[in-house]
Amino acid sequence: MRAAVLHEIGQDKLEVLDDVEAVGFGPGKVRIRVRATGLCHSDVSAMSGVLPQPAPFVPGHEGAGDIVDIGDGVTGLSVGQRVLLCWLPACGSCPACKRGQTQLCLAGFMNAGTPNFKRPGGDLFGFAGTGTFAEEVVVDAGCAVPIPDDVPFDIAALIGCGVTTGLGAAINTAKVEAGSSVAVIGCGGVGISAIQGAKLQGAAQIVAVDPVGSRREAALRFGATEAVAPDALADAKQRITGGEGFDYVFEVVGRSATARTAYETTRRGGTLCVVGAGALDDFLQLNMFELFFDEKRILPSMYGGGDVLRSYERAIALWRAGRIDLASLITHRVPLAGINEALEQMRTGVALRTCIEI
Known about the structure:
Number of strands: 19
Radius of gyration: 20 Å
Distance between the termini: 11 Å
Strand content: 25-35%
Mean pLDDT: 96
């Protein structure tokens, strides 16, 4: 089968090969024919080494498709069933799951160290234990989440990561209050979803911050009340909040420099929500006096900060009701053979989300 492969960490292009085989099928597993997958910035971060991932590997973790085979012991799923891929399934029995913090379950991360694919040259890993830039994947049954027939594969793929992450940051983690002021730094697919979440929660002002003009224009269509370049954020803070700072600021870039800007843009007693996934060696510096004196809440948000299965259902319900726009998040479409074109669209910022149709 075909799959897009990164041979070494640090390479900026993928090679589409046709001699890849999905491995590991057996009890408790399912084989999924991938139909659509989104390109998430986390895939690019794993390719560059910002996020830890063994290589060679098949990127991709935001996917949807249909089940083609089911291993022994799997219940509740059937061949032909439409599913989205959950890259962080909950085991249900670890301390985090028992506390109701299923987004912090580590069971899914344990799969990242086991090869998901092979080819004549050796084993290949799948990013985040999945690897959806391939025609087929073999995953634990818990990674296959059934979707209703009226949800297209491309929409389901977005719900599998970016939409759930952004909406959840605003709704689950920050719990944006009605009438509040919000700034979102970084307006790709996740940032736009955070904007939609803040709008759903009733925020009065939502300022989108991004260096790319087309993304700023898009943010306005998705619910931002104003969109500015990074160098105009200080002025927006002064005009909108009288210099006090925003009630909620979302950092959706994953860099200490933007997190520090976000902290300084948050009012005293306000909330900084860190959504971007950054590097292990990139440190955010705060002095102990400001940490105490400003009493700003710093809330990291992992995969939307809540039970992902409930978050999927919520996103589908909101999409059906027309309360959120998911179709317009997909600004570009390419076949698997055009994956490097999709990477360029991501790096230049021209795309909110590129859908790879497989």
